[in-house]
Amino acid sequence: MNTVALIGAGLYLPDAPSLAAWTSGSATPAAPTGAIIEPRSRRRASPITKALADAFAEALAASGADPALVATVFGSAVGEVSTMVGLLDTMWCQGELSPMAFATSVHNAAAGVVSISTANRAYTTSIGADFDTPAAALIEALGLVATSGGVAIVTCGDEAVPERLVDPADGWELAAASVAIAAVDAAPMAPRLTIRPRRDSDELAASLCDSAAIGRNPCAGLVDLALATSKQAPLVVALDRGRGTGWVAELSAPGSK
Amino acid sequence: MSLAPIQPTAITGFALCNALGGDVRAVRDALFDGRSGLGPSPIALPFDTAVGVVATPLPELPASLSGWTTRTAQIAALLLAQLDAPLRAARSRWRPDRIAVVLGTSTAGADVTEQAYKHFLDHGRLPDGYDLWRHHTYGAILHAVRELAGASGPGWVHSTACTSSAKPLASAQRLLAADLADAVIVGGIDTLCAMTLRGFHSLGALDHAVCRPFAADRGGINIGEGGAFLLLERSGEPVAILESVGESSDAYHISAPHPDGLGAALAMTRALELAGVAPADVDHVNAHGTGTRLNDASESKAITSIFGAEIPVASTKGYTGHTLGAAGATEAAIGIISMLEGWIPASIGAEPTDPSIEANIAHTRLDRPVKRVMSNSFAFGGNNVSVLLRSA
Lengths: 257, 392
Known about the structure:
The complex is a heterodimer of chains A (257) and B (392).
Chain A (H helix, E strand, L loop, with lengths): L2 E10 L6 H6 L14 H6 L2 H17 L7 E5 L5 H12 L6 H5 L5 H9 L6 E5 L4 H16 L2 E8 L16 E8 L9 E6 L14 H4 L4 H9 L6 E4 L8 E6 L5
Parallel strand pairs in A: 2-3, 2-4
Antiparallel strand pairs in A: 1-5, 1-6, 4-5, 6-8, 7-8
Helix pairs in contact in A: 3-6
Chain B lengths: L8 E9 L6 H10 L4 E3 L9 E3 L18 H12 L1 H10 L5 E6 L5 H14 L8 H4 L2 H12 L5 E4 L8 H11 L5 E8 L3 H9 L20 E2 L1 E8 L6 E10 L12 H14 L8 E3 L6 H15 L4 E3 L2 H4 L6 H15 L1 E2 L15 E2 L4 E2 L4 E8 L3 E9 L1
Parallel strand pairs in B: 3-7, 4-5, 4-6, 10-11, 10-15, 11-13
Antiparallel strand pairs in B: 1-8, 1-9, 2-3, 6-8, 9-16, 12-14, 15-16
Helix pairs in contact in B: 2-6, 9-10
């Protein structure tokens, strides 16, 4: 049960704040807005939470699913790492931590504010698995669709890790992407998406994202998958950019096995 | 459309480590005797509180994993050693790529990173050997567990604050139902760190003394460290059965529970419905029971709305502290002990109980057959998980 229908996609990149903007070829740089987040939470939301929310909102809209009922799987390798570093700066300078900063430092901050903002009492989670985060989030969603039906939206992204914690040469830019999936028989005209381990015979599609800084993002594989939805299937996308355990996403035409 | 049914799942082994001791027997004995493991914090803090510390000596990692050495990874090694026999049996039944690893943590490597960051502030550079990918991220503990367990199937770490290690049980049932794995190592680990303690203090959520869930004068939580692993298999010799897991979101507030416990009740209801079990057929609720005024009040409302006011309810956080990302798996494992041995632990510290709490809090250990246990975990983000377990 590792094949589903791909019924929507979304994206946030600093130079292309939506998949629609990227596809149109007329994107202009913009900060993430987090427009789907209710105003009070939005004011406090970090850039990564807003980027995840923007990508999620675009995939949700494309899927046509009920925002209050979709299952949501968020993924991030390092989560709210800038918020954590801010807390550490405060703590080691003998300051009092901000309760709101602490509450929004949790890895599931985006999952929480999106569920609040969409009045969604259904399934949500937030996971991490380094460079396998996109594959892991998709596998978790496969299980949800197989056992519960409905639509699951997988949204992954990472913000840049502060240079104090990593070699700047290994750093990356903020990026988030999202795909909406459903059972094949619930969307027979949609492209098929199969998640599986890479085979020696696979010819991996070249990434459509030419930014090296985005390519180093642990969730770049989901960015590549979201961008690949603009191309004719079939194609095989590496979900880990070669830095994880080798999971791929195979996109194929409706009706194919 | 035909859905893959969630099936009752064999739990073929479990392991525990927390402030009560370094193995199942030690934890069991303390719970049976009503002995708390909470005490002074080894981390210097500008306020008073009690914490739960893992005092058991932790094993060294093998040479191939020495670069991944953290307290979290060492606790994982201790837990996997306890699971050695069932893991060997599982590896004889299933291919390594059909054994998945799904864990939970809220802190991940925060204890290492906060010290590394202090070193940076003091010396202008990170300490030698610090590596974000080996010491901090979710992938770090995942890598260590996979290597130690010989498991190469799908793997990830849930980090949904205090439900982090309850969610892997649900993921495991789905992986098995969807035929994406044959066995799943699930569980969670959290370790003490200053940032977490100070963060909960900033929220006004820490008790300054030993926590007293459900008590009239309860003052909040105590943080504990620890871990628990369970081995779930498609077939095998079970010590208990995972019937179902109910999950929900409050859609209410990032850090406060819904006052009427609506999301909590929804999680419990979904667990019962998934298993086709009536509330009357559940013998005990291991409550999330943190000791905060809001949590205990809303959880009591949720429990009584479903089970009535007779079912015995206990919180074990007065023993272990709130182990946060390890709490869900820890309390599921404690539920298994209850079923195996036929007793419900006393909810220590709960007397005198808050008169507004309508749930039937177990003030003393109750020696009686326990066939089914509901174990609750609720978290920041309004994330709720209820685990329904049955005796084998």
